Amino acid sequence: MSTSAENGGENGSLVITEEAAEQALGLLRGEDMDTDVAGLRLFVQQGGCAGLSYGMRFDTEPEDDDHIYEGHGLRVFVDPSSHKYISGSRLDFEGGLQGAGFDVDNPNVEAECGCGESFRT
């Protein structure tokens, strides 16, 4: 299943910011991965004090049942069980005094833990 991310943040989509795409593509290229096929896998897993947390890793290609989002040249793979939690979110990259990293702005989150590492929907 393939879906474009550049059509906004409506339900069922994932918006990928230009900064997130640039950072992820640079890392993918640094690992000698083909950015036409490879991408960033974004998933939700059990864990953290609020119950759920995000995970990310690079994959050489999507799985057959993945939702595939594309934005600014970056492909993001989301498995079906994670999709219900991530749908409608915005993937960004933020840097600052506390460090730099990818950030998921998720409208489905009802509560987050105090440190911001886990969430509940």
Automatic annotation (TrEMBL):
Listed PROSITE patterns: HESB
Classification via InterPro entries: ATAP, ATAP_core_dom, FeS_cluster_insertion_CS, HesB-like_dom_sf
Domain of life of the native organism: Archaea
UniProt-recorded Gene Ontology molecular function terms: 2 iron, 2 sulfur cluster binding; 4 iron, 4 sulfur cluster binding; iron ion binding
Gene Ontology terms describing biological process: iron-sulfur cluster assembly
Gene3D superfamilies referenced in this protein's UniProt entry, alphabetically: HesB-like domain (2.60.300.12)
Short name of any one Pfam family annotated for the protein: Fe-S_biosyn
Domain Core: 14-117
NCBIfam families: iron-sulfur cluster assembly accessory protein
Protein name: Core domain-containing protein
Organism of derivation: Halocalculus aciditolerans
